[in-house]
Design goal:
The structure is a single chain. The protein has helices spanning 28-43, 45-52, 54-58, 60-65, 82-90, 92-103, 143-157, and strands at residues 66-72, 75-80, 110-115. The longest helix has 16 residues, at 28-43. Helices cover 45% and strands 12% of the residues.
Length: 159
C-alpha cells in the first residue's frame, strides 16, 4: 500500500459570465475589417493594405472615381465608369507610380479597368460650384426650405 498515491478530487473550472452584449446597429465595415484583415495579411500583406486603405493611398479624387476590385499578378483591377476609365487609362503611369510610392515598393505593374460604378456616396461626379440653380421663391424657412431647395437644384441640374 505504500506505492499507492492518494487521488485529490479536482474542482472543475467555473466559466466566467459572458460580457454584456451590445445590440446597437453597427456598420458592416466595422464588423468585417477585424475578421478579414488577418486573413488578407497571411495571403498577401501588401495587397491587403492596398485594398483596405485604398482611400488613403489613392487620394480622395481617385478614390471617388475608382474602387479596387482585385489584385493579382501585379495587375490591379479598378471598377469605374466608362468615361472615368478612359481618363484614368491615360493617367495610368502616374497612378501606378503614386501607388507604388505609397506602398514602398514596385508592387503594382499594370492597371486594368472594368466598367462598374464604384459603390458609395462618392460615386457621383462632383459638379462645379458655379452651376447652382436659384431656388423658386416662396419656400418655407428652416430645414424644410433648405431640403426643398436642394431637391429643386438636383432636379434642374439633370436637364
Amino acid at each position: 500500500m505504500a506505492g499507492k498515491k492518494k487521488q485529490v478530487a479536482q474542482i472543475p473550472d467555473v466559466p466566467a459570465a459572458p460580457p454584456p452584449r451590445n445590440f446597437a446597429p453597427r456598420g458592416i465595415a466595422a464588423l468585417i475589417a477585424p475578421v478579414v484583415r488577418p486573413a488578407f495579411k497571411r495571403r498577401a500583406p501588401a495587397a491587403a493594405g492596398l485594398l483596405a486603405d485604398w482611400r488613403d493611398i489613392a487620394g480622395p479624387d481617385l478614390a471617388a472615381r475608382a474602387a479596387p476590385v482585385k489584385f493579382a499578378g501585379g495587375t490591379l483591377t479598378l471598377a469605374c465608369t466608362g468615361p472615368a476609365a478612359m481618363e484614368l487609362q491615360l493617367l495610368a503611369p502616374q497612378i501606378v507610380a503614386r501607388l507604388n510610392l505609397a506602398l514602398g515598393h514596385a508592387m503594382v505593374e499594370r492597371l486594368r479597368f472594368i466598367q462598374q460604378a464604384p459603390a458609395g456616396p462618392l460615386a457621383r461626379s462632383a459638379k462645379p460650384a458655379g452651376d447652382s440653380v436659384a431656388p423658386p421663391p416662396g419656400l418655407p424657412e428652416g430645414a424644410l426650405g433648405e431640403a426643398l431647395a436642394r431637391l429643386y437644384q438636383g432636379l434642374k441640374s439633370r436637364r
